[in-house]
Amino acid sequence: MKFRDPARDLALRLLCRFEATGAPLDQCLHGLEGLLPDPRDRRFARHLVLGVTRWRAQIDWVLSAFTRRPLESCAPAARQLLRLGAFQLLHLDKVPVRAAVHTSVELAKRHAPPGVPELVNAVLRQVAASAAALPLPDRRADLAGHLAVCHSHPRWLVERWLDRWGLPATEALLRADNQQPPLYVRLARPGAEPPPASAPAGPLPGFCALEDSESFFQSPAFRCGEYQVQDINAGLPVALLQPRPGERVLDACSAPGGKATQLAAQMQDQGLVVAADRSARRLRRLRENRDRLDLRSLRLLVEDARIGQSGPFDRVLLDAPCSATGTLARHPDVRWRKEPGQLAALSAAQHAMLCRAFARLRPGGVLVYSTCSLEAEENAGVVARFLRITPAARLEPAARIFPGRPWAATYVQTLPGREPGDGCFAARIRREGP
Ligand SMILES: C[S@@+](CC[C@H](N)C(=O)[O-])C[C@H]1O[C@@H](n2cnc3c(N)ncnc32)[C@H](O)[C@@H]1O
Predict the structure, then answer these.
(1) What letter does residue 140 receive in the DSSP assignment?
(2) Average pLDDT in the 374-399 region?
(3) Of the ranges 38-52, 204-218, 379-393, which is most confident?
(4) Residue 397, preceding bond cis, omega within 30 degrees?
(5) Of 18, 65, 214, 389, which residue has the fewest beta carbons closer than 10 angstroms?
(6) Are strands 227-229 and 207-210 parallel, antiparallel or unpaired?
(7) Which of 384, 378, 304, 382 minimizes the C-alpha distance to 338?
(8) CA–CA distance from 264 to each of 238, 258, 402 (Å)?
(9) Which residues are catalytic?
């Protein structure tokens, strides 16, 4: 009988494409509906791709014990097949060992050069038999190395988080990054009913968690603009900004528009929200969201936040491009796409954007600077440097807006593993003077 395994087949092709192009995983997974008609296959294919990506460092460490040459020197399809098989053996209780090995060998026969089916068969059998007995890097001798393998994160991130957050918070954070989060949505209209099979979630009212998102995007309620997909903590910068109906508000880095549409909704769609972004491609997604939600007060603008001139605005949101290290649960590929050397360039760009955004604020107006990074250089570091050179800027503590909330002190700071949802940093700054 002809071998058919559409979910694993597609997962393998997507993993190869992801590695070859370096494109974000979200982009590789986009349009799965057209490729796999059966929702169960779609769910399984997505689970495999996300799982292999999430557990890659641990899987590669296990595989390296059973392969004679380094995994990097294997043919790309062979490498991904080994990872796909090993992920099922190490992390999927419901897939029997025989099925994980057999399906991987069959896929190898179809997609890989001669010799690979035999290699896959031999290595995966050894993984099934002996992986549990492999000693992890010693926790006492090499804590960061141990945690990096155990929780499948890059060592440099583990080291900096141990320094920054300490051991208990870092372990909780690493664990949280490896849980698949539910889909979070914001009720986008007054009086919107929560979606079926959802539960209220997060620190702000009007946010819900959905366990099964498979049919959500096709539902009439989503298409008619009842809901906007948005992480539960991503709503905090807008809540900290406190926009009012009738005001002129700039969202300087707005695409794809979770916060811009939240701004307009919070302003009862009265006034003006200028939703700017450097990327015309990403603004197209914002336009789709705006039209679906039928928000009239949102104006789109292609603009670089380092040189934008229009204004003055009553309020400005600067949700700056960042390393996104607070979003690793939702975006498992991000951990492999970042390097420590990128932080200095990000922080310099963030500083330039903050200076420009502040200049577009009217005296007395309020700016919120936010990121989804957990790194001090991109957060408190950027704010402190800006305050040092800007006498007219006054920091307003977040605890005044969110009294009694553990994640609000001088700044808003949520930390995965301590709070549900993404990591979010936000600072509220007022422009003083005439
Ligand atoms: C964190 S995302 C914004 C998310 C958005 N606020 C939301 O809630 O959906 C950062 C955005 O900054 C944009 N960006 C990057 N560099 C920029 C620049 N120099 N000027 C304006 N936008 C920029 C990116 O295209 C990206 O859409």
Answers:
(1) T
(2) 98
(3) 379-393
(4) no
(5) 389
(6) unpaired
(7) 378
(8) 10, 10, 21
(9) 372
Residues 355, 227: Cα–Cα separation, whole Å:
34
In a domain, 1, yes or no: no
Hey, whose CA ends up nearest to atom 25 of ligand 1? 279
Distance 153 CA to ligand 1 centre (A): 25
Statement to judge: residues 372 and 424 lie in one domain: yes
Amino acid identity of residue 180, one-letter, is: Q
End-to-end CA distance of the chain: 80
* Ligand 1 lined by 159 (C-beta under 6 Å): no
Task: Give Cα 399 distance to the centre of its chain.
Answer: 26
* Closest-lying ligand 1 atom to the alpha carbon of residue 259: 8
The verdict on the CB of residue 304 being under 6 Å from ligand 1 is: yes
Spell out the residues 6+ positions from residue 89 whose beta carbon is closer than 8 angstroms to its own.
95, 97, 100, 101, 124, 127, 128, 131
Do 419 and 297 reside in the same domain of the chain?
yes
Please report, as a single letter, which amino acid is at residue 69.
R
Domains: count for the chain = 4
Q: In sequence order, what E strands does 201-258 have?
A: 207-210, 227-229, 248-251
Give tens-digit pLDDT for 155-206.
Answer: 999 999 999 999 999 999 999 999 999 999 999 998 899 998 899 999 999 9
Which letter, b or e, does each residue of 63-81 get, where b requires 16 or more Cβ atoms within 10 Å of its Cβ? beebbeeebeebeebbbbb
Question: Residue 252 Cα, ligand 1 centroid: separation in angstroms?
Answer: 7
Element housing 354 (H / E):
helix 342-359
The CATH number covering residue 83 comes to 1.10.940.10
* Ligand 1: residue whose CA is nearest its atom 1: 321
* Residues 150 and 249 placed together within one structural domain of the fold: no
Range of the domain at 278: 236-431
CA angle 168, 414, 332 (to 5 degrees): 75
In a domain, 80, yes or no: yes
51 token code pair: 């799982």
User: Model-level pTM?
Assistant: 0.95
Structure tokens at 166: 């300490």
In a domain, 350, yes or no: yes
Claim to verify: residue 204 and residue 172 sit in the same structural domain: no
Instruction: Tell whether ligand 1 has an atom less than 6 A from the beta carbon of residue 60.
Output: no
The answer as to whether 140 is a domain residue is: no
Hey, is 429 helix, strand or coil? Answer: strand
Residues 150 and 278 in one domain: no
For ligand 1, whether the C-beta of 318 sits within 6 Å is: no
SS3 content of the chain, % helix, strand, coil (to 5): 50, 15, 35
